[in-house]
């Protein structure tokens, strides 16, 4: 693969322009108003895989949005790598906080990305990272450097729980048979210090509703005499953490693994500047569970956060009203061994039990998934580590992530294979937030690094 870097440099402008074109498609899976855009994006992925060298590509219908499946089988006796990614994106709201329109990509230089970053919804999560694999395949097929078989499974519901993907995987185990699964939907420590994600947190996502009177009430006539659902909901949510920011749901921590002092010491070796972290977020202090560092709080500890809360009048001006209902969306990030369905049930039982008289409470589970840990002594991990070392000139650090990719545990359960998480994003890339972006350096470096994984995986496997 001596011509890998020259190939990427020769075609870098085209690679960037191709990514910009797919970033223009508002493939928002959470909003039915964008149904056709999601379908259009699936078609764009199909076309890209065909041009990159897949022998067979199909858009597979599911109960929800379709899955794009492609393959390049060169010898059935060789190993097979299954690449997973997603073509749907998060809603861009709030739009007023974007410096440029979320679906009109622009390249701007930043302190962290002096060579420029592509600003658009989905730039890093996950269109940019997914498309690195498409371009890596293009290089390997056009230069006769593909050392094994490759399959692609690109879905359109990751941002809403991957329900159809679970159905598809169970229906197509033979089609998806592989030796290792490769995903780029995570990040790394920095552009100078690569890392490989070895653990993911699980997820339980719920919506709660508190109902008081049978209609909105005049706050002067009824205030202080009947329960205000917004006040009640606020108190209930506040009670979910104690003074040490420890979650108060009974049984919540029963299966939480306490890492040893030695393991925590190894984690602490990763470069991290607390002052820089606060500066980047424009905060004057960090916040979280007592007894743990910032990097431990966002990776090896479970959390509970309110993602949205609403009720009553929120328009311009004043309306003196006691709302009939109040709502909140709540996510719980879980660590390995915590079962998301058990946690959802624990939350439901507890939240209903703490409701005062005068209101009715309902808890609606949305979606969830299990946590995941990948061993660092596997062939897949070793191949990824060698690839990063060659590409960056520095050995990667194994690192647990605070994020969740619920289908990773499903893959191991149904397909009986391990997943390698080769992410190239940075914590500062603002995924799920206004002004999401992906460094041009990171995008091109991913295309340079991924073919090396194939090379070393086949060498270590043989």
TrEMBL record:
One of its GO terms (biological process) is proteolysis. The keyword NADP does not apply. Signal peptide: none annotated. One of its GO terms (molecular function) is metal ion binding. Keywords: Hydrolase, Metal-binding, Protease. Residues 199-358 form the Peptidase M20 dimerisation domain. InterPro entries: Bact_exopeptidase_dim_dom, Cyt/Met_Dipeptidase, Peptidase_M20, Peptidase_M20_dimer. This is Dipeptidase.
């Amino acid at each position: 693969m001596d011509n890998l870097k020259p190939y990427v440099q020769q075609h870098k402008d085209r690679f960037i322009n191709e990514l910009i074109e797919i970033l223009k498609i508002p493939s928002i899976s959470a909003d039915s108003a964008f149904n056709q855009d999601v379908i259009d994006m699936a078609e764009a992925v199909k076309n890209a895989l065909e041009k990159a060298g897949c022998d067979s590509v199909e858009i597979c219908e599911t109960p929800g949005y379709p899955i794009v499946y492609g393959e390049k089988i060169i010898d059935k006796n060789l190993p097979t790598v299954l690449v997973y990614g997603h073509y749907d994106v998060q809603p861009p709201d709030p739009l007023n906080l974007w410096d440029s329109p979320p679906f009109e990509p622009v390249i701007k230089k930043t302190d962290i990305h002096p060579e420029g970053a592509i600003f658009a919804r989905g730039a890093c999560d996950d269109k940019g990272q997914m498309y690195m694999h498409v371009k890596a395949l293009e290089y390997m097929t056009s230069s006769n450097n593909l050392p094994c078989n490759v399959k692609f499974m690109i879905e359109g519901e990751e941002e809403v729980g991957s329900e159809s993907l679970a159905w598809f995987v169970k229906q197509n185990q033979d089609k998806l048979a592989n030796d290792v699964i490769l995903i780029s939907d995570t990040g790394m420590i920095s552009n100078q210090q690569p890392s490989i994600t070895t653990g993911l947190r699980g997820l339980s996502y719920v919506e709660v509703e508190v109902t008081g009177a049978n209609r909105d009430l005049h706050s002067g006539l009824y205030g202080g005499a009947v329960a205000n659902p917004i006040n009640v909901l606020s108190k209930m949510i506040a009670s979910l953490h104690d003074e040490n920011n420890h979650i108060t749901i009974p049984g919540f921590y029963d299966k939480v693994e306490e890492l040893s002092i030695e393991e925590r010491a190894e984690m602490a070796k990763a470069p991290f500047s607390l002052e820089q972290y606060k500066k980047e977020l424009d905060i004057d202090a960090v916040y979280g569970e007592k007894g743990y560092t910032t990097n431990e709080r966002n990776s090896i500890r479970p959390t509970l956060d309110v993602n949205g809360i609403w009720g009553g009048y929120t328009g311009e001006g004043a309306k003196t009203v006691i709302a009939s209902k109040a709502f909140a969306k709540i996510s719980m990030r879980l660590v390995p061994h915590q079962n998301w369905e058990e946690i959802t049930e624990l939350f439901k039982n507890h939240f209903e039990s703490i409701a005062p008289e005068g209101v009715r409470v309902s808890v609606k589970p949305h979606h969830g998934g299990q946590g995941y840990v990948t061993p660092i002594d596997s062939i897949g991990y070793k191949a990824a580590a060698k690839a990063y070392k060659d590409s960056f000139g520095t050995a990667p650090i194994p690192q647990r992530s605070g994020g969740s990719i619920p289908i990773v545990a499903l893959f191991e359960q149904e397909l009986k294979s391990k997943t390698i998480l080769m992410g190239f994003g940075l914590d500062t890339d603002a995924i799920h937030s206004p002004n999401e972006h992906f460094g041009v350096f990171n995008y091109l470096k991913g295309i340079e690094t991924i073919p090396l994984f194939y090379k070393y995986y086949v060498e270590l496997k043989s």
